[in-house]
Amino acid sequence: MSKIRVNFAVGQLGKVVGARLVYGTDLLEGIEELCKTNGISSATILSCFGSFQRSGFVYLIPNEDSPIGVGYNNLIVKEGPIEFLQGTGVVCQRDGQFETHFHGSICDQNGNIFGGHFIKGENPVITVDLVLAETMEMEFRRQFDEETGANQFYPVETNKETPNQLLK
Fold first, then answer.
1. Three-class SS of residue 146?
2. Which end of the chain is more exposed for a tag (fewer CB within 10 A), N or C?
3. Distance between CA atoms of 113 and 115, rounded to whole angstroms?
4. Are the beta carbons of 101 and 150 closer than 8 angstroms?
């Protein structure tokens, strides 16, 4: 059996927002502005799909300089039209600013499927249908993690400084 190590927070879902991002809106900028407008600082993406004018993303590759042996490649841009098959993520805060961690899959004009970590400012939509849910009684943060050498998801219950831990 593998070693179990989990950082977590327990809370509830708050308001749910359904939206359509319209032509020219960047996916992540649109999500973050929608949260800001609705007074949401942390959220989870329940449903997200549509189409892009182009898509910019990265994915993991081996990296000997990383503490865990992996890192992201250089930005890949696929020109559209692009079918956005599905995406999911968490809307977080880092240093008082939105930082959304979002992964998705896309299909190009030839039916080739790609996916990875979407980059803010690199995914202007044709149209995207979106449902997101606010998280209550916990905060989603992105902060530097010594073990991985990168910013990671850091869920913390309200009025606590660190996540709960499960260690087995």
1. coil
2. N
3. 7
4. no
